Amino acid sequence: MLGLDESIKDWFASQVSVWQLKNGRHDLPWQKTRDPYKIWVSEVMLQQTQVKTVIPYYLKFLKKFPSIRSLAEADLDSVLVIWSGLGYYSRARNLHQAARTINTRYSGRFPSDFESIVGLRGIGKSTAGAILVFAFNERFSILDANVKRVVTRFFYNVLDVGATHSINQLWSLVDDLVPSEGIVEYTQGLMDLGAGICKPSAPICELCPLNKHCYAYARGLFDVNQKPKSRQKSVVTKNYLVFKRGAHIILQKGSSSGIWPDLLNFPECTNDQLIKLPFLLQQNKFQFGEISQLPALTHELTHLKIAIRAFLIEISSSRRPRLINNSAWIHMSDLDNHPIPKVVRKIIALVARRKSSV
DNA sequence: AACGCGGGGAT
DNA sequence: ATCCCAGCGTT
């Protein structure tokens, strides 16, 4: 407990709720339903991912997997296909696994109590709270980036932001702020305020329904949030081999220990193998034309930068080299039916560009 | 409690 | 280049 005045709590919730009903977002796809399954899918997609990015993926996903059972019975591959390009693919894995858990443990019915929900793979405290609010109209709190920012700025004076326990302080604060009525519009309002008014930079405080008692606004504080020390990304160099035969390319399923497990990518090789590549191909009686290097490319991941050297190898024979395991010829117009990370599309775009320029 | 996760968009 | 995003799982 942070010893908040009851009147300020009531005022805060009331301001947020009233503002939301008039000025907030009401037409997002997942706002048209109370189906916990659909709410769940949206919340998982929205983890560390912006609303605008999620919308098309959400619509595609629900069309393909309209129910918990359809998701549980699907192959992981078909789930990853829909997820391709959205990133953080472990979310898709977790979603799939949790659907199967719901099938077996809860007879296919989405659980409605916090402990059961938060016990599902890929669902933490905040996502569980959001599901309980939006699907079950239960009084729970959430703490996403929006809420964190709004609450930290408004209640800056009652928080010890520099403390190591600051995240726990924020949780106890938002728990304390949960209103007795109107939890849906209150919760949605906090996020809408964070997204549209109380923005990270250049917040529009003049339009904020909380500005009258906002600590940061009163003090002219700009950034009261802790900025995480930016770590230097390590860089790795990879050689990708783009075997191309007509409109087909060879893609290989990633190992479970590497980057992008279970997704398709180009075969890789070491620098040593690269030098010996013509010899290796000949040894496999593999008929190939000239080996050309595509323009250099870097792909950035959360904690890693990949410097990519891609080599285009035109193939005339229809066989597949034995030295490439778990691989297949994929038609370039058929990529939407395969689970691939975005970097593969980038490289294929380079291949297509080269072809047209010649 | 801090860190890794091995993305992607906006500026 | 940098920052930010409807956070979670692991150690």
Mean pLDDT over the residues: 90
Distance between the first and last residues' Cα: 69 Å
For this structure, the CATH topology of the largest domain is: Endonuclease III, domain 1
- Unreliable stretches covering 5 or more consecutive residues: none
Structural class: alpha+beta
**Which architecture of the largest domain would the CATH scheme give at its second level?**
Orthogonal Bundle
Largest sheet: 8 strands, mixed
CATH H-tier superfamily of the largest domain: Hypothetical protein, domain 2
What does it look like?
Helix 1 (6-23) packs across helix 11, helix 2 packs across helix 3 (51-64) and helix 2 (36-45) runs antiparallel to helix 8 (125-136). The protein folds into 2 domains: 6-219, Hypothetical protein, domain 2 (Endonuclease III, domain 1), CATH 1.10.340; 234-357, Nucleoside Triphosphate Pyrophosphohydrolase, CATH 3.90.79.10. Strand 6 and strand 7 form a beta hairpin. The chain is 44% helix and 14% strand. It is elongated, with a radius of gyration of 25 Å. With 358 residues, the protein is an alpha+beta fold. The protein has 15 helices and 8 strands. The structure holds a DNA duplex (11 and 11 nucleotides).
